[in-house]
UniProtKB/TrEMBL annotation:
<protein>
    <submittedName>
        <fullName>Competence protein ComGF</fullName>
    </submittedName>
</protein>
<keyword id="KW-0472">Membrane</keyword>
<keyword id="KW-0812">Transmembrane</keyword>
<dbReference type="InterPro" id="IPR016977">
    <property type="entry name" value="ComGF"/>
</dbReference>
<keyword id="KW-1133">Transmembrane helix</keyword>
<dbReference type="Pfam" id="PF15980">
    <property type="entry name" value="ComGF"/>
</dbReference>
<feature type="transmembrane region" description="Helical">
    <location>
        <begin position="20"/>
        <end position="45"/>
    </location>
</feature>
Amino acid sequence: MRRTKTKFVAILYRNRGFTFANLLISFSIALLILFSFNVLLSYFLKTSVHSKDLHPYEWKVFLITLQKDLKNANQLQVRSNIITYEDIKGRNIMISQYGNVIRYQVEGQGHIVMLQRVKTSHFQQVQHGVSIEIESLKGSFYDAIIRDYKGLVKREE
């Protein structure tokens, strides 16, 4: 007697192919996977939503960037809400508050955002440096002093 090897699919479906019931089961499993993916995706997106307040890391990056720029600056002037200086290429740079952001402008043009979610800002000349005080939209206060080692800070007249 010759024994034929039957495949699993042939045994499962008895050589009749897919039935409507198989199609419904497969479709149901596919929908379950898709809906599960949607729920998981919405969960991960909710946890990665940006807060409405100024993030401390964003504040640190702002300070590092400003310190690096001021280190290479010439003719630094500090007024109540504006820092102006000349960069190493001879361009006039202005850092000021515009709406809810602190922006960086070159020769009075452009709009590079340095810090977001800012309610008020105040720049002040202190001995050997610049004092920066920021209030975020949520009411958190941030302050720092950036030292001027070149002695470029000019008193406000």
